[in-house]
Amino acid sequence: MSKETTSLGRIFISPRAIATIAHHATLQSYGVVGLAPRGLAEELSTALTHQPARGVYVRYQDEKLEIELHIIVEYGTRIASVAQSVANTVRYHVEKALGLPVDAIHVHIAGLRITNGE
Amino acid sequence: MSNPTLPQRNTRIDGLALKNLVEAALTWLRTNQQTVNSLNVFPVPDGDTGTNMVLTMQSAWNEIKDLGHRHIGQMAAAVSQGALMGARGNSGVILSQIWRGVAKALHNVEVLDGPAFVRALAEARDTAYKGVVRPVEGTILTVIKDVAAAAEEALKETDDPLQILERIVPAADASVQRTPELLPVLKQAGVVDSGGKGLFFILEGMLRYAKGLPLDTPLVTVQPLSALKLQETMEVIEEGQDFEVVVDFYPSQPLDLQAFYSRLEQIGTSIQVGEGDGMYRMHIHVPLEKRYEPIDYIMGLGTITKVAMENLLAQMGGSGATAERLELANVQPGQIAVVTVSPGRGLSRIFASLGVAAIVEGGQTMNPSTQEILAAFENLPTDKIIILPNNKNIILAANQAREVTVKQVVVVPSRTIPQGLAAMLVHDPDGDLETVAERMNKAMEKVRSGEITVATRSVELDGVKVEKDQVIALLDGKLVLSAATLEEALLGLLEKAQAENYELITLFYGADLSHSEANRLVDRVRERYPQQEVELQEGGQPHYAFLISIE
Question: Which of A87, B44, B105, B241 could form a disulfide with B120 if both were Cys (CB 3.0 to 4.6 A apart)?
C-alpha cells in the first residue's frame, strides 16, 4: 500500500488502483496488443475475481514502488522500442496520477501476436 | 507550392524511384526536425518525436542506399526492414508499421500505379492500427487514416500515383491541423500532434522531390506562442547580431509569411515567429544599427502591441566589443557530442574552444536538474553523447539523464572542472564512444584539481580546522588547509599537491576576483615554481576564487 501523509491524515493507495492506471496506460501504448497473466493459476484467479488489470503486478515494499507488466507485442515491431515506450508511458501516467515516483518498471514480453499469415 | 508542376504523367515509379523518394522524405524530415521536436507535449523522456522519426527513416535509408532493386515491392520490403530495425520511440515504431503495411501491399508489385498506391496506404493504415489495443485519435494514426481516405478519393479522378500524392499531402496537412480537436492535451498545449506532423513532412518531402523543389531549406513556419523558446540560458550569439528584438503585433491583413520571412532575413538572424489567438510574436537578432528596422517594417503590417529590445552583449555580462561569443562545436549525426556543466562564462568559453557541443550552467551552488541536462543534449543531431558533470553532486543527475533518454550516453564522472578540461583535451568526435570515454577517464586521473574558496561556516574536517570566513583550499575534493589570505592558501595548496613534480599549473580565477589581483597572485606562484609553466585564465565561476589544474 503506497501512502502519502498530508496535514489531515494519510492517504492510502492500493496496488490494485495503481495497477488499473498502469493497465490502461499499457493498452494505450503503441505496439502492445494485449496483456498476459503470469501463469495458469494466476489466469484462473483473475478470471474468477474479475480483476481489472491482469498482467499488471504492483509491488510496494520498503517505500519502493515497482510495477511488473506482462505484455503481448505485435509481431513485426521493434520489441525493444515498444518495451521502452510502454515503460515510459506507464511511468508517466502513474507518476502523474499518484504524485509518487515509480522506482522500477519491469516489462516482460509474454508473447507476440502474428496477424494475417506472415 | 502550386506553381511548380509535377513531371509528365505516367512517370515510372519503380524500386529506384522509391529509393529517391525515401531519401527525399528523410532529407525533408531532417530539415524540419526542430519544428517537429518543438511540438512535444508530454514530458515523457522518450526523446523528441522529430529526432526519433528522423533516426527511424535514417535506418530505413541506410538499409536501401546500396540497393539497386528495380522491383518496387523488393525495395519497399527493404525500407520496411530498415525502418523496423531502427524504430525509435513511439512515433518511430508506428512509422515502421506504416512502412510495413506499404511493403505488404506492394509485395508483388513491380511498378507503382494508382490503385497499388492506394492499396499500399490502406494497408499502411490497417497495419498501423493493428499495433495498438486502444488507438488514441489525434495522433499519427489519425493522419495515416485520413491520408488513406484521401488517396481513395483521389483515385476516382486520377490513377497517376504522383497526382494522388499531390492530393494526399494537403489532406495530411489538414488532418494534422485537426489533431487538437481530437486530443485535448494537444489543445491545452496549443500545438498539433508531433508524430502526425512528422508523417506530413515525409509525404511532403516526397512531393517536393517529385516537383523538383529544394529539400534543404526549412519552410517558413509559425509556431504556437507557447512553443516559442526565446529564453535560452546561454544563448549563442552570432557575430555582429548584438540586439534581440521581440515584437508582438496584430496584422491588419492576413500575413504573407513567405514575404515576411524574406524581408526579416534581410535584417537579421535567429528569426522565429509565433502565433496565438491572432496575435503574432516576432523574434529576431539584429546588428546594432538595424535595431529599429524590424519595428518600422512591422509597423506597416498592422498594430504593434509590444516591443522588447535587449542588448545581448550586455545580457551576457560582457562589455561592448570585447565580450566573447560562445562558439559551440557543431556536431554531425554519428559523431560524439560532449555536454558539460560549467559554472562560469570564462570556463564555458574554454570548454567551447575545446569542442564541447552543449553547456549547462551550474556548479557547486547551483546543481542543474536532470531535465536541464537532458534538454541540453536531446536536440543535438547525434545519438552518441558524453556528459562531463564536473562536480560530484551533478554526477547523479547526469546518470539519471542517461537512464531516461534513448540516446547512447556515457557519463564520464569528472568531479572537478580541471578533470573535465583534461577529459576534453583527449576528445575525438569521430571516435568510438566507449573508447573515447575510456581515454577521458584515463586523462582525468592524471590531473590534480585544486579549489580555493571561503568557508561558509566553522568546521573541522579531514583533520583541518576551519573558522567561518577563512580561506580554504581543497585538493581533489578534500579539504587540505585553511589560511588567512588567498596567497597563503594558494601557495599552501600547491605545496600539498607537490606541484614541483608536475609540468603545468593553470589557474582559473573567479568572478569575485579582479584581473590585476589574479595577476599579482600568479606572479607569486611563478616565483615559487620557476620550473613549471604557470597559466592564468579567466574562469568567471562564482564563490571560488581559484580553480587550479595541476598536470
Answer: B105
The pLDDT, as a whole number, for residue B362 is: 76
Contact check, Cβ <8 Å, B132/A77: no
Q: Is A32 on the interface with B (CB under 8 A)?
A: yes
B43 contacts in chain A (CB < 8 Å): 92
Would you call B446 helix, strand, or coil by DSSP? helix
Instruction: Read off φ and ψ for residue B508, nearest 5 degrees.
Output: -110, 115
Dump pLDDT digits (tens) for B164-179.
999 999 999 999 999 9
CB contact under 8 A, A76 and B97: yes
Instruction: Give B134 to chain A, closest Cα distance, Å.
Output: 5
Specify the pTM.
0.55
The DSSP annotation for A36-79 comes to --SSHHHHHHHHHHT-S-TTEEEEEETTEEEEEEEEEEETTS-H
The residue-averaged pLDDT of B521-526 equals 88
CA B48 to chain centre: 10
For residue range A36-79, list pLDDT tens digits in order: 887 766 666 666 666 667 889 898 888 888 999 999 999 888 89
Q: Are residues A30 and B130, on separate chains, in Cβ contact within 8 Å?
A: no
CB contact A49 to B (< 8 Å): no
Q: Nearest chain B residue to A24 by CA: give it.
A: B134
